Amino acid sequence: MTAKEMFSHTAKLRGLPQEQIASFVDNLVDLMDLRLRENDRIGQFGCDLKRAVSVGLALIGHPKLFLLDNATVGLSREARDNVLRVLRQIKTKNGTLVMSTTSNTELEALCNQLVVLLEGRIVHLGSPHQLMSKYGSGHFATLFAKSHEAMEYFLLDSAAKFMLKTFKSKIFLKNKSFVVLHIPEHVPMFYLYETLEKIRLRNNITRYTVSEVTLDKILIMLVKKER
User: Residue 176 sits in which domain range?
Assistant: First the structure.
């Protein structure tokens, strides 16, 4: 069966008036960027085009609620951008998207409310903007202890306290083997690295890392924090 035939049969099953089906399907083919392959069998399609057909089928009947599971995973950049474009149009027209995703791109493009789940527990409920407002500037500095020994933990804890006092930073995540601190944006990078190197030598820290604060890093750290 071709994509066009699949759209037409689904439109009939969902009760669209017969006289509207042809024009509706024609518009849907264009929307999903399938015009060049509209008469090819779906079985010949790659993953990108099959996903486009799936999203197109979900649009038939003008539903107000869409349930999506990793809608763009495995797609090429071009196909992903096309699916996101269509989903943004749905959202603009007051459609509601409920989606599970591991994609930061999907989050930033589509979501105005975010639920972070860990082993069936809600560990965050709110908007992506709320998370970014809380942690979205500055850097994450992570210090790693050499072992789980009590003395190593004491040295790691001492290093963390020194960082808190020096940079007015906050502890984002801490356990016996490493600590993650949120460093304010105003701290110069050269001073941050200089201080970290001194701490590494003085407190027997095995290594350290510094990374920019991004939404996906916040989510990863948040899940680690709750484990």
Answer: 135-226
